């Protein structure tokens, strides 16, 4: 029996929706069915500019997309402050939800969305694309190898890019009424998810935000960092920023080995990605080099990671709609854990960089 093709509606014409709409077209089990904006003209221009199929339904409101009975799922790239309203309504309309990150301004808002999805039996997934790249699974194999990697002891993650003046003035990510978490919610989301991924999603006991966050004139964070602590002695740090050169690193260090990756959010190339694995590292006799050298692993993929994300989401939706399966709750759990840590970091900043306990 052929897998069901999931018909997507998109709410809004955000820049990231260009990338995800392409992913929906590339995914073998999904199709672009509808797009809605605040005007038919804007939605039509967006569809035309981004190669939507001629059959795509064009709507002049988000409500119209949700009211279309043939839309199976919606991708929601709206500003974070609008997520609760539209995700809850989408769930009530029985539309499955692929939600752009950051998913919420706080875990209370996220819980409202997750409860709506759960009570209406719809699938929820956030748009953290790198989680779906085959490289991520291969790196997990190395971290789980207690002989080569050993036991995880420390993690460092950074995601930063140097935003241009237009972004720093006009992007929704720097507007307190649209995305009040700023860099912490945007690029910081990836750093926190990377750290949780490395720990197999074990929440830290406490977090302490780093001194010296940078704000814009409206009080939105442009750059910040934090340290995270686990009861078993693991330690992690991250830094996120809109103000420095593009950097996307994860370093995970174990008792026997270390993992390094330099493009974890967006691979340097769309069709392949690499990581470095070191085990039992030492030095040559005169300490002039390493022995053994770290190994480089290249993972090839036929589909870009965003299309793999859409494919996995659509497969889950298809199981719910076609087989009567229950929605997979893994993705909601990962979103909630990420949000809990973000909330704790924000609380630490607001309280003068004191230690804040992460309560699940």
TrEMBL record:
Residues 6-125 form the Gfo/Idh/MocA-like oxidoreductase N-terminal domain. It holds the Pfam family GFO_IDH_MocA_C3. It comes from the Eukaryota. Residues 145-259 form the GFO/IDH/MocA-like oxidoreductase domain. SUPFAM superfamilies: Glyceraldehyde-3-phosphate dehydrogenase-like, C-terminal domain (SSF55347), NAD(P)-binding Rossmann-fold domains (SSF51735). One of its GO terms (molecular function) is nucleotide binding. Signal peptide: none annotated. Belongs to the Gfo/Idh/MocA family. This is Gfo/Idh/MocA-like oxidoreductase N-terminal domain-containing protein. The lineage of its organism: Eukaryota, Viridiplantae, Streptophyta, Embryophyta, Tracheophyta.
